[in-house]
């Protein structure tokens, strides 16, 4: 039958392409369908154009899901080192930016090219601009599309989450899951900058563009990393990481100098340089614009010898315990990933096959699995795709 395939994969992103080539290696006829005009758009955008394709220190704790155990089997079956071996086989140059955090040295294009070259090697058909109108199942899966109708023995849903609709994101995977009886865990934008009220933004106006190594906490988690003040609010890795745990309306506490005790620092400075201005002393350890923000007009005029305990306490509070409440997040428009998704309760953690519908698989970000910032989301895409590919009969 011309339009019949062993496997149809919906979604030509990281998970879909990787699954396709790993099934095709086993002599299966594979068709990949994507509604976008280009495949792998998120791979190209990722890691600031350098794709943070994995993290060698991946642990189960780097993932959020209603069932925290769900990721274990797939991550054990296909590890970060397995993917790195593929990268090395294709002579892709990479760099380690943070501990274990691997990026392309040249461009994200290298990773996409590797996937597409492998797909071409196994003659995998990839149809772009394909809108799927209806999916039904009798003996086979039947996909009615704007191009033609296709049938397959197995169906893999790899349509990702809701983040960045301009890159092709849709809730299609959730609709298919629900159609076949699966539940959806409430979704929300994650790894996303915080927005601030207009009133706060006006106060912080001068700080836009300032970056600082900080620690930031909500009620449940503390993250130490870099913060970036923007014209819309707060961004940078520390904020993106905390956003995965933040609940709407919750206060956050920022320590602008987590490695210093400002009280001790100022006391020592006062002994050494009593006539130095407080702001000059603080400018050694913080960006000038941040110093100007944390010091009130009175402190700005003072020398170190004029600092009394109440003033030191005031500085201590504004530097080590700055409390503010984000007005929200920038939402799916800029979020790197989507928290929540297809519930894992009726998905096999070993094969990624639905427990409700035989030969139906869900892989990658469409599932209720969210990796932290640092290459974990791609590793989940590779690991889950690889497991499904091995299981497809
Ligand atoms: C700006 C940005 C930077 C990122 N950087 C990193 C990083 O450096 N490291 C990291 O680990 N993670 C990063 N991520 C997250 C990572 O890109 C995703 O977790 C990963 O791409 C998910 O892979 P996926 O294949 O499941 O989904 P996707 O890559 O989103 O692919 C889904 C595919 O399905 C297609 N699709 C959607 N709806 C339909 C439909 N109705 N019909 C047909 N096709 C459809 C889409 O067009 C897309 O091609 C980043 C994300 C963003 C947005």
What key phrases describe this protein's structure?
393 residues; alpha+beta; Elongation Factor Tu (Ef-tu), domain 3; 7-stranded mixed beta sheet; 7-stranded antiparallel beta sheet; 24% strand; binds flavin-adenine dinucleotide
Describe the protein in words.
The relative contact order is 0.19. A hairpin with a 3-residue loop joins strand 9 (141-145) and strand 10 (149-157). The protein folds into 2 domains: 4-187 and 339-391, FAD/NAD(P)-binding domain; 193-329, Elongation Factor Tu (Ef-tu), domain 3, CATH 2.40.30. The longest helix has 16 residues, at 376-391. 32% of the residues lie in helices and 24% in strands. Strands 1, 2, 7, 8, 9, 10 and 20 form a 7-stranded mixed β-sheet that branches. It has a 7-stranded antiparallel β-sheet with strand order 17-16-13-14-15-12-18. A 3-stranded antiparallel β-sheet has the order 3-6-5. The protein has helices at residues 14-24, 41-49, 71-77, 80-89, 109-121, 172-179, 198-203, 237-243, 262-272, 278-282, 288-294, 297-300, 309-320, 376-391, and strands spanning 4-10, 30-33, 52-55, 63-64, 94-98, 101-104, 125-127, 132-137, 141-145, 149-157, 184-190, 194-195, 211-217, 222-229, 233-235, 252-255, 322-324, 328-329, 337-342, 360-362, 370-371. The chain is an alpha+beta fold. Bound molecules: flavin-adenine dinucleotide. Flavin-adenine dinucleotide (FAD) binds at residues 10-16, 33-36, 39, 42, 45-47, 51-52, 132, 158-160, 163-164, 168-170, 172, 336-337, 364-366, 375-378, 381.
């Amino acid at each position: 039958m011309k339009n019949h395939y062993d496997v149809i994969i919906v979604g030509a992103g990281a998970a879909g392409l990787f699954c396709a080539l790993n099934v095709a290696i086993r002599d299966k006829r594979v068709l990949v369908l994507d509604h976008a005009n280009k495949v792998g758009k998120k791979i190209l955008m990722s890691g600031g154009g350098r794709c943070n394709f994995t993290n060698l220190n991946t642990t189960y704790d780097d993932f959020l899901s209603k069932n925290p155990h769900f990721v274990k089997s797939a991550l054990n079956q296909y590890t970060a080192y397995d993917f790195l071996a593929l990268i090395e086989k294709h002579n892709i140059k990479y760099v380690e930016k943070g501990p274990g955090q691997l990026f392309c040295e040249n461009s994200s294009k290298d990773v996409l090219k590797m996937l597409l070259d492998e797909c071409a090697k196994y003659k995998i058909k990839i149809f772009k601009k394909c809108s799927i109108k209806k999916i039904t199942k009798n003996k086979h899966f039947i996909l009615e599309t704007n191009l033609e109708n296709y049938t397959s023995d197995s169906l893999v849903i790899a349509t990702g989450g809701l983040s960045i609709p301009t890159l092709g994101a849709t809730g299609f995977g959730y609709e298919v899951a629900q159609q076949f009886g699966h539940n959806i865990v409430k979704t929300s934008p994650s790894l996303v900058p915080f927005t601030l009220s207009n009133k706060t933004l006006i106060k912080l106006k001068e700080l836009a563009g300032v970056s600082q190594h900080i620690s930031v906490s909500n009620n449940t988690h503390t993250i130490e990393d870099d913060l970036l003040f923007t014209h819309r609010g707060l961004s940078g890795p520390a904020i993106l990481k905390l956003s995965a745990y933040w609940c709407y309306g919750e206060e956050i506490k920022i320590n602008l100098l987590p490695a210093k005790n400002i009280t001790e620092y100022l006391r020592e400075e006062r002994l050494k340089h009593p006539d130095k201005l407080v702001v000059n002393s603080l400018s050694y350890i913080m960006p000038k614009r941040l110093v100007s923000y944390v010091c009130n007009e009175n402190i700005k005029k003072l020398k170190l010898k004029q600092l009394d305990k109440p003033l030191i306490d005031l500085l201590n509070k504004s530097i080590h315990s700055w409390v503010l409440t984000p007005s929200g997040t920038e939402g799916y428009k800029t979020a790197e990933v989507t928290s929540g998704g297809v519930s894992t309760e009726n998905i096999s953690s070993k094969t990624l096959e639905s427990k409700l519908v035989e030969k139906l698989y869900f892989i990658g970000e469409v599932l209720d699995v969210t990796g932290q910032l640092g290459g974990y989301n791609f590793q989940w895409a590779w690991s889950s795709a690889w497991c499904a590919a091995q299981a497809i009969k």
